[in-house]
Design brief:
Layout (H helix, E strand, L loop, with lengths): L11 H17 L4 H12 L4 H7 L9 H37 L16 H14 L4 E2 L5 E3 H4 L24 E3 L5 H9 L4 E10 L10 E11 L4 H16 L5 E8 L2 E10 L8 E2 L2 E2 L8 E10 L1 H7 L7 E8 H9 L12 H4 L4
Parallel strand pairs: 1-4
Antiparallel strand pairs: 2-3, 4-5, 5-11, 6-7, 7-10, 8-9, 10-11
Bound molecules: phenylalanine.
């Protein structure tokens, strides 16, 4: 008889019954699968209580052994069944507890979706406005040669107007493009007139302050054909401004200078915050600084020198070109006060636009 025998006395048959009862009680107070497993090892394990009783089977009279053996097997099967029942019970209880804590009325967790950056959105919107007018979208390299960025645009070496654009030179005649105007030259080299294209892209200047970042985005637009006039430029830009800023926006042309356009102009639109009045509720308008106008782009009639550089006959063809800053348009459109926000990648900012 093993020391672990539950009662330690009585016939083997009685001891087997007692074992069954003891196990039942033990299981009732087991609350985890681990506790049930500990009981299984203690009762049914190789060195467990049942094995102990079975070893004393050899000491019983031979004629009783078959009946006792059968009983032992029945007890073992019963014990196993009770254990499994208890395990299932505990499992179900766990599920109930989980369900009791689960609130099906809570909103689900939505998938975090990315959104387009405001610069991308505005670029696409502007491109679409011009594509609707018959322009095609062209692109070019950000690393440019002096020829495309300056010379072919009527900005020979030592031309004072080069100072308007602080430049990142990479080599003696390679630089990060300072504007998208090189796309005028590249496109005209490739295509015979009539040409109507817009060229969006990144541009670089050695500037960094509240209103300037070393990299920003421009969209260049140009159209070349016979008999293109400033009136076509004005009509095209007015249609564009009305589409982006609304049909009540007023467009104003101011004389300006660019080496690659003649005549040149700067385009202002009436301030969308104060409606061009310069004041909002009696106070000076903070967006247009009380002027009622906002500058949005530079433009002009393409200089004959540019046509000469690309092999177009300036006696036959005329054309217009314009260049606008995408961030500037986005700031005005969405009322964003700080240019640097576009490039800080703060999720609270960029997720507001998609
Ligand atoms: N490239 C000029 C700039 O970046 C803008 C411009 C483009 C002006 C086309 C006239 C015509 O300032």
């Amino acid at each position: 008889m093993t020391a672990a025998h539950p009662a330690g006395s009585g016939t083997l048959a009685e001891q087997l019954d007692e074992l069954g009862q003891a196990l039942e009680q033990g299981l009732a107070s087991a609350h985890t699968a681990a506790e049930v497993e500990a009981i299984r090892v203690a009762y049914l394990g190789r060195k467990g209580l049942l094995a102990g009783l079975m070893s004393s089977l050899a000491k019983t009279p031979p004629e009783q052994r078959p009946a006792l053996g059968q009983k032992a097997n029945q007890v073992k099967a019963l014990l196993q069944e009770q254990m499994e029942t208890r395990l299932r019970e505990l499992e179900r209880r766990k599920e109930h507890e989980l369900l009791a804590r689960f609130d099906p009325s809570l909103p689900g967790r939505t998938q975090w979706l990315g959104s387009l950056h405001p610069v991308t959105l505005v670029t696409e919107e502007i491109c679409q406005a011009f594509v609707a007018l018959g322009f095609e979208v062209v692109e070019g390299p950000e690393l440019e040669t002096d020829f495309y960025n300056f010379e072919a645009l009527n900005l020979p070496p030592d031309h004072p107007a080069r100072d308007m654009q602080d430049t990142f030179y990479i080599g003696e005649s390679t630089l990060l493009r300072t504007h998208t105007s090189p796309l005028q030259v590249r496109t005209m080299e490739r295509m015979a007139p009539p040409v109507a294209a817009i060229a969006p892209g990144k541009v670089y200047r050695r500037d960094s302050d509240l209103t300037h970042t070393p990299m920003f985005h421009q969209i260049e637009g140009f159209l070349v054909d016979t008999d293109v006039s400033m009136a076509d430029l004005r009509g095209t830009l007015t249609a564009f401004v009305h589409k982006i800023f609304g049909p009540d926006t007023i467009v104003r042309f101011r004389p300006s200078f660019f080496p690659f356009t003649e005549p040149s102009a700067e385009v202002d639109i009436s301030c969308m915050l104060c409606g061009g009045r310069g004041t909002c509720a009696g106070k000076s308008c903070r967006v247009c600084k009380q002027t009622g106008w906002l500058e949005i782009l530079g433009c002009g009639m393409i200089d004959p020198a540019v046509f000469a550089a690309v092999g177009y006959d300036p006696e036959v063809y005329t054309g217009f070109a314009f260049g606008l800053g995408v961030e500037r348009v986005a700031m005005l459109k969405y009322g964003i006060g700080d240019l640097r926000m576009f490039f800080e990648n703060d999720i609270r900012f960029v997720s507001q636009f998609g």
